[in-house]
Design a protein that fits this description.
- It is a single chain.
- This protein has two helices and no strands.
- It is an all-alpha fold.
- It has one domain.
- Helix 1 crosses helix 2.
- The N and C termini lie far apart (68 Å).
């Protein structure tokens, strides 16, 4: 209903009267939820990857310091 606010009455009628439409609504809801969770997970993974890339860079600098001192 949030996605189609101008169709609320029609959606309610179809939902009450049509099993296929109810199934479609359920599938749409699950798809939206999965997409929302996937975006959260990706964002967290992206942040973790960025942190590890920064750490890798810092460690490489430290390794270079050790190597250049010898």
């Amino acid at each position: 209903m949030q996605r189609f606010p101008d169709q609320i009455e029609h959606i309610e009628e179809l939902y009450e009267q049509n099993a296929d439409f109810r199934t479609l609504c359920g599938d749409y809801f699950l798809c939206c939820e999965y997409l929302k969770e996937s975006k959260k997970t990706f964002h967290k993974k992206h942040e973790a990857i960025e942190e590890y890339e920064n750490l890798q860079s810092e460690l490489e600098k430290e390794l270079n310091n050790f190597l250049s001192d010898e």
